[in-house]
Design goal:
The protein is α/β, with parallel strands linked by helices and 475 residues long. Helix content is 38%, strand content 20%. A 9-stranded mixed beta sheet has the order 3-4-5-2-1-6-7-11-12, with helices on both faces. Strands 15-14-13-16-17-18 form a 6-stranded parallel beta sheet, sandwiched between helices. α11 links the parallel β13 and β14. The chain is globular. The structure holds adenosine-5'-diphosphate.
Length: 475
Amino acid sequence: MSLSVLSVASECAPLVKTGGLADVVGALPAAIAPEGITMRTLLPGYPAVLAALGSTQVVADLGPMFGGPVRLLAGTGGGLELLVVEAAHLYDRAGNIYLGPDGRDWSDNPQRFAALCRAAAIIARDGADGWTPDVIHGHDWQAGLVGDYLLADGTRTPVVITVHNIAFHGLADPSLIGTLGLDPRRYTREGYEYWGKVSALKAGLLTATRLTTVSQTYADELMTPEFGMGLDGVMRHRRDALSGIVNGIDEDVWNPATDPDITPYKTPAKKAANKAALRAEFGLPDSDGPLCVVVSRLTHQKGLDLLLEALPTLTARGGQLAILGSGDATLESAYRAAANDPNVGVRLGYDEALSHRLIAGGDAILVPSRFEPCGLTQLYGLRYGTLPVVALTGGLADTVINASPAGLAAGCATGIQFHPVTADALRGALMRLCDLFAQPKLWASLQRNAMKHPVGWGASASRYAALYRDALASE
Ligand code: ADP
């Protein structure tokens, strides 16, 4: 049976991206099409989204919302079937989609994403140019209010909410309840109230027919106080509705054999040209140790402060680091200082092409995250024979097979995992990395295992398709 799904998200690659959420939202429609699912993606009308739309059609006038006119547009962009919420007063802003020039959340973020959710609920109720979704798939807090708006309208379309990162709750002051058009009777513990605030994420977690997150381990972790970030009780309450579906990567974009940003290769032995080019680009000298790379937001979550502490252990063994990232000012300046070491190269900023050159040129990719719902860069690393060195948490636990004595004996290891997530344990992992790297035959076998490891969407797309059908059947 074919099924129509409306995907609702605040970002979507290749149009607008701040993190892995965008990659997933951008990849899912094509990945899921073979399962008989027609997916259209509803996005805010940021300048980059409007610019990417080809010929557009005004599908509906959604009336005034939050101080300005709102229209629903339909068109294609970035290879996707899009529905776009055009609302210049909410979305026509330069710079980051979530943050103002002062680096803080736009003060009207509750309204900006409530408009997205309201538009989704109207599409579910009235359809969009004759197309009506059977299921809505919302991503993170920005889609959290869809369920409340459906309830208010009496629309029974099932909603699947995926938690990509529970750290972001989408909080709003309760004085906005009327403005946002929420039912004040649902401002309770059983509804969207969260410690005296409105939580769009909690609203979504409680109203969704099914909940998913992006790995099974993160699903388990979310039910614990350590990782649930204040919503572990809600997650335990919804345990029966919750499942973990690991992200895939776009295997066309991340394919070492065809990648236009690198010297293409099919076997790990042929990575050498990329490694030499990367060393030259980062001004790193020749060395016998492993060239480690990082492509990441520079935040506490990503554990890159731990890497700064552990770096001397790596460089003392002849290892090197090339890092691309941006984020916290203190981490940025600490890495700038770390680059005084000739074996450490740092690029601060966001650069897609350079991220490909790093993943192709590195021997190992480091992901020492304190928590990691899924993580994508370790998957890129696997595909490119660039062995992941990862914290044992979330999706990093589920996608890498540790080169423990047992993993090595079984001949299936694809990388290195460490636990707990401390500088000491990371030091230990970097020593293990150097030991393995010093054994070329063993290293090559790990690279071959990594490159064979499935990292595409196949299995996960089937699981999403089954979940949509299950959500629909349960209504
Ligand atoms: P998160 O979504 O928490 O940032 P993920 O690993 O799920 O982490 O996804 C991060 C995505 O953003 C990956 O596609 C990664 O390659 C990309 N990325 C992160 N930082 C940079 C950067 N500085 N330059 C280019 N790409 C980056």
